[in-house]
TrEMBL record:
<dbReference type="InterPro" id="IPR036779">
    <property type="entry name" value="LysM_dom_sf"/>
</dbReference>
<feature type="domain" description="LysM">
    <location>
        <begin position="116"/>
        <end position="163"/>
    </location>
</feature>
<keyword id="KW-0732">Signal</keyword>
<feature type="domain" description="LysM">
    <location>
        <begin position="180"/>
        <end position="224"/>
    </location>
</feature>
<dbReference type="InterPro" id="IPR018392">
    <property type="entry name" value="LysM"/>
</dbReference>
<protein>
    <recommendedName>
        <fullName>LysM domain-containing protein</fullName>
    </recommendedName>
</protein>
<dbReference type="Pfam" id="PF01476">
    <property type="entry name" value="LysM"/>
</dbReference>
<feature type="signal peptide">
    <location>
        <begin position="1"/>
        <end position="22"/>
    </location>
</feature>
Length: 372
């Protein structure tokens, strides 16, 4: 009896340290799902999650793994130059931010449209897929539940599996944010993470159900609510509300516009305004990117006008969204003669028949509404 004890202990040690090797022979209990909370049923939004590859890889391989359509989405989320090639090598254990679309249902948030989708390879087990392919962003139990797999051992090569990445679309403390699944590094702290991402410690604790900063665990996926730059996106725009966190670049309006949030640059002028500019990319929705009634991305002098009879205007033309027909713009800090009221911001847009409507000046100083 005594001689069998060391063997029993040895088996337990092996099964807990290298379960991926035993997965074809061992039925692992499904782990409890740990998705981010999301109370906005049916809501969709942009989200980000950290990915740490255990092995050296390339941007192209990561793009393929997470089913990301355009490489520039990854480049923008990580503040990498748009000239960065897809073949760029990433060393093992380097953190890369992965942008994706989140969908809320049943009180939790998951990556939408059953993406990313992973094709099972020969020899794969659910633990291996969760821990070693997707860097513990999900548990094998979450994959099993999301794909309605009765037996975790019964997956076959060629089978498509949805990898349900954690996310949320909820407001935090009354503010719209981008939820970021941050992988907690060894030696990190709630205080350090809060300071790095400009969020409060209380918000982090509450959002993640932590009663104390001491409850933070290395390797855990922490829901970090990233503040975003202010924008003048019209609430009727197809990309409303266009939330862009610090250090990120997004492409919108059918790839005709890029918008950047740079807190360091914004601090110099004491604001967190979104910086948008036209791109030279091929549009995904138009044969050609439509012209705008003022040139956004810089200072404007005389490029826009108030109602007929006005003198000159000066200010900053800014991106205000887009419709199926055109790109919307607005002018900040402009001056208009006081005719039945003045305006500090007016919408500018092309009509569906490409007519540029005359801008009206109102008494409300900051508004970007437009009429149909």
């Amino acid at each position: 009896m005594a001689s069998s004890l060391p063997l029993l202990v040895w088996v337990v040690i092996v099964s807990t340290t290298i379960p991926s090797l035993l997965s074809p022979f061992l039925t692992l209990p499904a782990a409890e799902a740990q998705a981010f909370k999301c109370s906005r049923r049916g809501a969709t939004c942009d989200a980000i999650v950290d990915y740490i590859s255990p092995n050296a890889t390339t941007l192209s391989a990561v793009k393929s793994l997470f089913n990301i359509k355009n490489l520039r989405s990854i480049l923008g989320a990580n503040s990498l130059p748009l000239t960065t090639p897809a073949s760029k090598t990433l060393p093992a254990n380097q953190t890369l931010k992965i942008p994706f679309t989140c969908s809320c249902a049943n009180g939790t948030g998951r990556s939408s449209n059953r993406r990313p989708s992973y094709t099972v390879a020969p020899g794969d087990g659910l633990y291996h897929i969760a821990a070693e392919v997707f860097g513990n962003l999900v548990t094998f139990g979450e994959i099993q539940t999301a794909n309605n797999i009765p037996n975790s051992n019964l997956i076959v090569p060629g089978q498509k599996l949805w990898i349900p990445l954690p996310c949320s679309c909820d407001d935090v403390e009354g503010q719209k944010v981008v939820h970021y699944g941050h992988v907690v590094a060894a030696g990190s702290s709630v205080e350090a993470i809060a300071g790095q991402y400009n969020v409060s410690q209380d918000a982090l604790l509450k959002l993640n159900g932590l009663s104390s900063p001491k409850d933070l665990i290395a390797g855990a996926i922490l829901d970090v609510p990233l503040p975003t730059c202010k924008s003048m996106i019209n609430n009727g725009s197809l990309d409303y509300p266009l939330l862009v966190p610090n250090g990120s670049v997004v492409f919108t309006a059918g790839n005709c516009v890029s918008c950047k949030c740079d807190a360091q640059a914004a601090a110099a002028v004491n604001n967190w305004n979104l910086e948008c500019q036209p791109t030279q990319l091929k549009s995904s929705i138009w044969s050609k990117c439509p012209s705008t009634s003022c040139q956004f991305g810089g200072s404007v002098n005389g490029d826009s006008s108030c109602a007929s009879g006005s003198d000159t205007t000066s200010g900053t033309c800014t991106y205000a969204g887009y419709t199926n027909q055109t790109i919307l713009t607005a002018t900040l800090n402009s001056t208009c003669p006081q005719k039945d009221g003045g305006s500090a911001l007016r919408p500018q847009y092309n009509w569906k028949w490409r007519l540029i409507l005359t801008l009206l000046c109102w008494t409300v100083p900051i508004s970007s509404s437009y009429m149909f």
